[in-house]
Design brief:
Number of domains: 1
Distance between the termini: 31 Å
Structural class: alpha+beta
Radius of gyration: 14 Å
Largest sheet: 6 strands, mixed
Strand order of the largest sheet: 2-1-6-5-4-3
Order of helices and strands: HHEEHEEEE
CATH class: Alpha Beta
CATH architecture: Roll
Number of helices: 3
Number of strands: 6
């Protein structure tokens, strides 16, 4: 389901991750989207974002997110900010918890959907 409002981008993505649906999560991004990790590393495009998400989905994560801000001048490009937390289990069966903040830029498409063009993760704490 495509996002129609900027804040839906985060909630639809979290829903796909919580379901373990990698392809639905990837489909929410523009084909040339950039994903900026806390380390500053940038991955670009569906194939690279898919590889990053595979590792994350291996944790069988349960994600929660709260959109804390949306800025847009005309509704066609927007910046969203969110606070998130996630819990899961690593390969050794140990619990993993993380929380942090994220920001993303979304751009309205011809079909009126709003896939992210870029997402940045910051302030991660374990």
């Amino acid at each position: 389901m495509p996002a129609r409002r900027p804040e839906e981008c985060d909630t639809i993505l979290v829903d796909a991750i919580n379901k373990g649906d990698l392809e639905a999560a990837i489909a929410l991004y523009e084909p040339s989207a950039r994903f900026v990790q806390e380390s500053g590393e940038v991955v670009t495009g569906h194939p690279a974002i898919r590889e990053e998400m595979k590792g994350f989905l291996a944790l069988k994560p349960k994600f929660s997110i709260k959109v804390t801000g949306v800025q847009s001048a005309d509704g066609n490009i927007a910046l969203t900010q969110a606070k998130w937390s996630v819990s899961g289990t690593d390969a050794e069966g140990k619990p993993v918890t993380m929380s942090g903040r994220s920001a993303e830029v979304v751009r309205r498409q011809a079909d009126r959907s709003l896939p992210p063009t870029s997402r940045a993760i910051s302030s991660v704490s374990a």
